[in-house]
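For practice. Any example?
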Amino acid sequence: MKLDVRNLVHVFGRQEVLHGVSFSVMEGEFLSILGPSGCGKTTILRILVGLLAPSSGCVCKDGVDITASPPSRRNMGIVFQNYALFQNMTVLGNVEYALKFHPELKTRSRAVAEDIIDQVGLLEHIHKKPHKLSGGQQQRVAIARTLAMKPDIILFDEPMSALDAATRISLREEIKRIQGKFHSTMLYITHDQEEAFALSDRIMVMDHGSIQQLDTPENIIGSPANRFVEEFVIANLRLKINSLVKYLKAAE
């Protein structure tokens, strides 16, 4: 088991935003945390990566309790929705900069960065600055920078919310290709049902700080745990499918 989260509770002010959340993630698994805004999914991400301390509960990685460990000791990478790139640096500069914090890679940081950039398909853009790239290309730079650190777990914080539909589909395929190539364990935060179902081995559906269902996409569709899952997940997927079918019929 790569990650084991037990009874996470987080209180903000007088409000309990996580109510005893427990789940596990296997090595090499792609788990999406799916839910509406305010359901607690980003709070979980911040606790996992070490940016926020839980009020109670524990986070174990590879059998070791890391609940109190600083972010630098967790060997997790995070990809943000706003890319968080240095605008004054090239693609190479952004990826290579991440390696400066690893002394053991100092002598070969340029070669490592170039190799990762090549593997995410950005070699022809290696000397461009972010403003010369599309949104999808910038997000791939952010992913390359994270991969260069060789994290055990990669966390995605709604990385496609600022992208257009065509770019989202393309980047979705790229993320799955990267996961297969690097055998990465990935946790993906999203409010988009279609995105979660396209990417995930399992999906954790959340609402109001609690897990409503944690299962495979097939089981969620076939056996929704409650009315929230039926309405937020299945009904919304049906609406999207029906809209597409309507327009496809009109185009025939």
In short: The beta strands are 3-12, 15-25, 30-34, 56-61, 64-65, 76-79, 153-157, 185-190, 202-207, 210-215. The longest strand covers residues 15-25. The mean pLDDT is 91. Residues 86-150 form one domain.
